[in-house]
Structures are given as C-alpha cells and as structure tokens.
Design goal:
Part of the twin-arginine translocation (Tat) system that transports large folded proteins containing a characteristic twin-arginine motif in their signal peptide across membranes. TatA could form the protein-conducting channel of the Tat system. The structure is a single chain. This protein is an all-alpha fold and 69 residues long. It has a domain of 42 residues. It has two helices and no strands. The longest helix has 39 residues. The protein is elongated.
C-alpha cells in the first residue's frame, strides 16, 4: 500500500507533463491501441474471475445437495 503513496502528491501540472511524455513516447495513434488492449485484458480478467466464482458456487451447491441426502 505504501508503494503508491507518491500518487497522492501529484498535482494537475504534473499530470499534464506525464500525459505529454506518454504521448511523445507512444505517439497519438498508438495510445488508443494500448487502451483497447488494456480494456480487453481487464475484461478477460473479470470474465475469468466470474467463471471461477460461478464454479465455486456450483461446487458448494452440489456439496450441500449431497449433504442433505
């Protein structure tokens, strides 16, 4: 938690400088591609966690049914 403490001290001017540096490094055309890739990755992660959660809930329901018989 303490590793990201420096983010609290970033002001508006610093954010503008960071955005400009990112644009210079990656180019304006490449940034939407990076954002799409990041969005896909986040979506896949959420889907995977939902699938695991559903499997766990299904397993618990099956265990409860077996215990009640």
């Amino acid at each position: 938690m303490n590793t990201l403490a420096f983010i609290q001290n970033i002001g508006g001017g610093s954010l503008v400088v960071i955005v400009l540096v990112v644009i210079l490094l990656f180019g304006a055309k490449r940034i939407p591609e990076l954002a799409r890739g990041l969005g896909r990755g986040i979506r896949e992660f959420k889907d995977a966690t939902k699938e695991i959660q559903d499997d766990l809930e299904e397993g618990l329901k099956d265990d409860n049914k077996k215990a009640n018989k």
